[in-house]
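Example record

The entry below shows one chain as it appears in the dataset: sequence first, then structure tokens.
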Amino acid sequence: MRQAVFMVLLLCSLTLAGCLDGPSVDSDGYGNTSESELLLPTWSVGDQWLYTFSTPQFDEDSARLVVAELDEDDGLYRLGISSEREAQRHAVINHNPFLGRITMDGLSVFEEGEAQQVFNFPWALGDTWMFTLLGQQWSATTVSIYDGVVEVQATSSDGHRLDYAFSGRAGFLDSFVWTDDDGVEQLRMQLNQVNTGYEGDVHFYRARDLLDNVYESTDNDVYDSFLDSGHPDGSEWDALVWYIDATIAGGGSGSLTMNDHTGASPLIRTWGSGATESGTIGTVPSNSGDYSLTVNLRGQSSMLHFRVAGAIVTQWTL
């Protein structure tokens, strides 16, 4: 009997010791979530998260977001991506807001030069806050916390919606879905793997839109232009990143010519009857000054979506 009582007391003491070593918040309905998983994480250079990215413009792709640099003086992380093509896509489509500068004091991301509080540490169920992202003003609410994962829902006055989850165990996003006012998913990010000690090249294109136009069928040439004057902070662009989405009607044809102010033509495209070119991206040198466009589209349903962004290119080798 004494031995049985001793074993019961021993088991109880071990249980209490475990609770003291790793406090949880089960009593708040958060499942198996530790208190540390509700707090702001700390990142180190080389921390990496492998995501699958999906957008309407591009096929599904995977790349790693990587902590490339710590700027202690300004309190910033520099977050890059392992795929240069994904960095270019972000530059011209703005489809990944979690690249570039991230604040150390809240993992806030930057839009139009201002830090935006996408995450709300320490996490608590029912908290509400506001931020701007992806061109929308969002009202966000923490709707669930369970097993170390915090789920947030946000809506905008324009009818857009964000559904995203932050993993306290991974130290970053578990998923992120942006749905527009027509119910179309504009971005889906899904975490596949977490690791540290990244080795290799990491890329970031700090960009600003210069042109975003849709051209439709016309019997005559259409002329357009845009100004390449560099970044507002006075820095010169390293490159111009362009995006083309074209559909040519049966029996139709199309062409695009872009000229810089010296008269050079860094980009020329021609399409024949029934041709399509979907989500093509490329770069041309930045030559400050006026750029002119000549577009010709024949065929009733022919269409061209053409975008250009100026970009300051940064590459790290870890």
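Notes for this example: The first helix runs from residue 2 to 21. The CA atoms of residues 72 and 104 lie 9 Å apart.
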